[in-house]
Structure formats: structure tokens, C-alpha cells
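Support request from a user on the community tier.

User writes: "When I paste my C-alpha cells into the form, the page sometimes reloads and wipes my input. The last time it worked, I copied everything first. Here is what I submitted, just in case something in the input itself triggers the reload:"
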């Protein structure tokens, strides 16, 4: 399995996904867009992973790499590649599929449960969340569900948490891949996001429970197994 990931900022990397891929002898390559790396051809990978970042999904004018990145995502979907989007990555996939990305009613930052939708309850990925596990959120925007996609998960703070488009595209608004050190780096990089809000957890409590990160890592493995089978 050949993995290629797109990174928009230094503090948004593969996290726990890297170990999962390496345990399965996958080859991993990357485009660090924040430092000007080039984008690959779709023949060079089997799985495209699009990571998060603080920019908006329509900030093409501010980031010269964004329009070419969207073209790569579009071409990858058309070529039948597996495409996984995390947070901003999911929003970029939604935009490529014709759905708008807008400001969410509130910022959602911290550990909050997600729930399967009626469609998600019978989906191989959606049903992994049947127990409404707390997952780590960090976003201010939200995607609409693209036409033809299945709405898998929701939360009290944000209605659209995950979608699947066919069998080869998955968008997740939340972060199963973040481990404690990754989350701390995100807190350091974006402290202004932690201003008080109805769905904002303070830094100290967000980072306090190692078991939550371990549970998320295990859930991530089940999600990747179901998606990449």
C-alpha cells in the first residue's frame, strides 16, 4: 500500500496513522505544502490522506497550493483512489464534490461524543461509533454533505461530522489521529482558538486524560481497517 499525505501546516501531520501504516509495511510519502513541496501524480499512490489546518477551504487566493491540491483530490477520486480527509481535508473534499463549507454556529474544540446518523448505524464505519465515543474536535467551519454522499456521524455541537462518498472517499471532521503531543502542539500553535465557547474545552482538561488518546488511537485503527479493506 502506497500512502501519500498532504500537510498544510507543520503541526498537522499523520500522528497515530503513521504507526498504523508502517505496521502494515506501507510506503509513506508526503507533500508539505507549507514549505512548497510539489504534488504527486495519481499513479504514484494508492491512498491520499488530506490533513487539517487553520485555513479555510475557499482560501485559494491566500494559498497558491490550494487550487492545485483540489485538482489532485478531484483527479484522485475520479481515478478510484482511496481518499481520506481529516478536518480541513474533509472540507476540501466536500468542496471538490460541490458542497459548501461555512462557519459552524460555534467553534468545537475538545473531547465531545459523536453519534451515528440513521444511515451511519448500518454503515461499516458509522457503526464503529455506536457507543457515541468522545473524539477530539478542533474546528470553526463545517462542511455540507455532498450530493451522493452518505452522512455518517453528527454531534451536538456540529451536525455534519463524517461522510462517505462511494467506497473510496471518507471525510472526518474530527481528529482520531492526534496523540497527546500532537494535541499539545496544536494548542501551542493556535491558542486563540481556546477562547471560551459553549463547545470549547480548556487546554488542561483536553490534554489530561491519556486514556482518551489511547481509545482514539484504537478507534482510528478500526476505522482505517474498515475503510482500507
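"...and here is what came back when it finally went through:"
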Amino acid at each position: 500500500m502506497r500512502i501519500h499525505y498532504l500537510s498544510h501546516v507543520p503541526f498537522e501531520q499523520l500522528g497515530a496513522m503513521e504507526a498504523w501504516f508502517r505496521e502494515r509495511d506501507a510506503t509513506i510519502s508526503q507533500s508539505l505544502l507549507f514549505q512548497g513541496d510539489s504534488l504527486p501524480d495519481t499513479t504514484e499512490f494508492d491512498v491520499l490522506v488530506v490533513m487539517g489546518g487553520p485555513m479555510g477551504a475557499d482560501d485559494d487566493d491566500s494559498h497558491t497550493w490550494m487550487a492545485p491540491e483540489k485538482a489532485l483530490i478531484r483527479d484522485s477520486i475520479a481515478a478510484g483512489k482511496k481518499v481520506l480527509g481529516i478536518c480541513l481535508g474533509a472540507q476540501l473534499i466536500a468542496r471538490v464534490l460541490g458542497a459548501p463549507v461555512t462557519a459552524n454556529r460555534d467553534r468545537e474544540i475538545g473531547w465531545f461524543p459523536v453519534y451515528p446518523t440513521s444511515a451511519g448505524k448500518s454503515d461499516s464505519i458509522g457503526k464503529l461509533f455506536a457507543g457515541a465515543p468522545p473524539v477530539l474536535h478542533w474546528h470553526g467551519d463545517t462542511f455540507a454533505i455532498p450530493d451522493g454522499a452518505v452522512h455518517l456521524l453528527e454531534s451536538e455541537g456540529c451536525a455534519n461530522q463524517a461522510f462517505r462518498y462511494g467506497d473510496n472517499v471518507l471525510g472526518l471532521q474530527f481528529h482520531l489521529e492526534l496523540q497527546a503531543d500532537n494535541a499539545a502542539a496544536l494548542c501551542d500553535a493556535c491558542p486563540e482558538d481556546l477562547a471560551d465557547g459553549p463547545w470549547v474545552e480548556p487546554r488542561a482538561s483536553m490534554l489530561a486524560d491519556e486514556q482518551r488518546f489511547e481509545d482514539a488511537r484504537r478507534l482510528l485503527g478500526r476505522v482505517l481497517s474498515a475503510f482500507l479493506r
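Agent notes: The reload is a front-end session timeout and is unrelated to the input. DSSP finds six helices and ten strands in the chain. Residues 210-227 form the longest helix (18 residues). Escalated to web team.
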